[in-house]
Amino acid sequence: MNALDLLAEREDMISPGISACVGCNVELTLRIVMKVLGPNTVLAIPPGCMGGVGVVGWNKRSGAKVPVFFPLLDNTASMLAGIRLAYDAKGKDANIVAFAGDGATVDAGFQALSGVAERGDRIIYICYDNEGYMNTGYQRSSSTSKGSWTSTTPVSKDGHGGKRQNGKDFPMIMAMHDIPYVATASPAYVPDLIRKVEEAMKVRDGLAYIHVYNPCLTGWGIRAEESISVARLAVKTRYFPLYEARRREFRITVPVPKPLPIENFTSRIKKFSHLGPEAIADLGKLAEDRYAFLQSLCRGKDNNA
Amino acid sequence: MSEIAVMNGNFAAATAARLARPEVIAAYPITPQTPVVEYLTQFAAEGNLGSKMSEVESEHSAMSILSGASMAGARCYTATSSQGLALMYEPYFRASTLRLPIVMNIVNREMISPQSVWGGPQDSLTLRDAGWLQIYVEDNQEILDTTIQAFRIAEDQRVLLPINVCYDGFYLSHMTERVEVPTQAQVDGFLPPYIAKHQILDPARPMAIDPLTSGYLVMEYRKKHMAAQAAALGVLAEVDREYESLTGRSWGGAIASYRMEDAEYAVVTMGSVTGACREMIDEKRSRGIRVGLVKIRCLRPFPREAVMRALSTVKGFGVIDRNVSFGWNHGIVYQEVKAALYGADRIVPSVPFIGGLGGEDITMDLVSTACDTMIEAVDAGKTIHEAVWLWSPRKGVKL
């Protein structure tokens, strides 16, 4: 089924009326992902935007049409591993899925996720990376880009400050766990996202991890109508390359042979507005370095242009 | 027929877990609990344990995996000690407030600092208000029997709460005793499979577990949780009677009294020190001193009525604590017992004792002296409010 047909025909598994910000591309990503996964899914939504906007529910109402629960910030992967073990013990099967922010994934939840990766627990873990704790007003995470204004890495009136460190290259860290499937994805490349979720569903021998890059309108300072175009620019500037890896086999799924200058991405985002040309150039250099590293992992295949 | 074997406390716990047929086990090794994990993995390697087992990377994940598995309807078992329990605190509290009937042995070990790996129930007692049921046992037979019973109590539809069966590190975990092991058929008859009805992660009947919840509903949940704790006392007694009819062994339910019938004085204990105190009571009785013993088995729920009844006829009592309650200058069990007696017709003198911290031996001499100290204070009509410390003097160490 092509992407358009799938989106048109599949049931929306998320309740209407959840209270995400106008233009939120995480909500869009979740709805798409859940259409692909379908009703035979158990969904974990840890603390974060999607928990905050009511996907688990409010009082006695559920926010989803599948079984959904609220793990702790730091144990999403472990709780899902337990569900898988219980299902295995009972001879049942379902998609056991996390939809977790970067705080619950790259920071507090990392140990549990790394444990699941190493043990080979069969779950699908999708991280929506909006570079920080957006649900509570944008505090930094270890995924936040260098230079970013956040509420815990503030900028002085004369323009000094912002985060001092680069964000972790987290999908690469997961790929280095040698798990069956790792992919990066973007709400601006929906057919690519859909195919990657379908690939994750086929995995039988361990963790499938998908890292979605979701620029946050409210936290980063992006106009709502640019929600998707900024996400696309992250890919086109090579700042967030789209690839997949099966154990040690890497493949770039959306090649970027002629990257746009990094300024095309950063200039749309208010959290970088205090940065001078040098700091912006550093972000561009980081993107090029990481892209070159990724290409080297693709072992000269023709898709690595 | 049941089998008679010689085993240490950890093997008794692992054997009980095996006989209970948990569907999921996740445990992280920590001294002095480590052999429990080794025994269970060995049972599995020999084909004698069918549980799905996870070799977790931490206790936090152990409890998290079991929480997920229990939410998916599985019978679950784990074990831990001290720092492992502390690391587990976040999902530990939540397992009770999610009403997940997980069974966990706690091999009691002192909390650091200073660094210590030896016995003492400070670890689990500190978490007494986290909503779990907690039973403390005295010997290896009681570990095995109570751990099997724990599944029945936790999974009872009137209870649906996680439960700890706690035993002293090294004194029980690593010491061997004679233990009668019921047959698999006996345990299967006693312990039907767990069927989760209250919450279940199942696509065939989708439900949301733990949406954002208003305070008035939180209050409803807490009140029901407390009612379930209270109901556990009755269930514990029922289960004890049924187990007795099966095996001939009763552990007395929430408390166990020894030579209390005509006692003028009582010594209150919990855990393995009870054994030494029984001997001491016999010795005092042989000299005509009418002293008896009350062993607290169930700390959560606290058997307020039973404790009040047991201590209502004595002239006074002492409590031996192998733990401290910072800020009170006595032990935790003493505090609990005193609170239970607030509703009694008369207030009798009492003496709090603290001893055996960090695995330090509580000898016969020490408990005998404690008993004498208590009787002297009681006869003088005097309550001692600050703990009397039980210890054997060491050269160069001042207490």
Could you explain the architecture of this structure?
With 305 residues, chain A is an alpha/beta fold. Chain A has one domain (3-304): Rossmann fold, CATH 3.40.50. Chain A is built from twelve helices and ten strands. The two termini of chain A are 28 Å apart. In chain A, 54% of the residues are buried. The model of chain A has no long low-confidence stretch (mean pLDDT 96). With 399 residues, chain B is an alpha/beta fold. Chain B folds into two domains: 3-247, Thiamin diphosphate (ThDP)-binding fold, Pyr/PP domains (Rossmann fold, 3-Layer(aba) Sandwich), CATH 3.40.50.970; 255-390, Rossmann fold. Chain B has helices at 9-19, 34-45, 59-71, 82-87, 89-97, 122-126, 140-155, 184-190, 215-247, 273-286, 304-310, 332-341, 364-379; strands at 3-8, 24-26, 52-54, 76-80, 103-108, 133-136, 163-168, 176-181, 208-209, 255-258, 265-269, 291-296, 298-300, 316-321, 350-355, 388-390. In chain B, strands 3-2-4-5-7-6-13 form a seven-stranded mixed beta sheet, sandwiched between helices. In chain B, helix 3 (59-71) packs parallel to helix 5. Chain B is globular, with a radius of gyration of 21 Å. Chain B starts with a strand and ends in a 9-residue tail after the last strand. The mean pLDDT of chain B is 97. Strand 4 of chain A pairs parallel with strand 9 (208-209) of chain B, so a sheet runs across the interface.
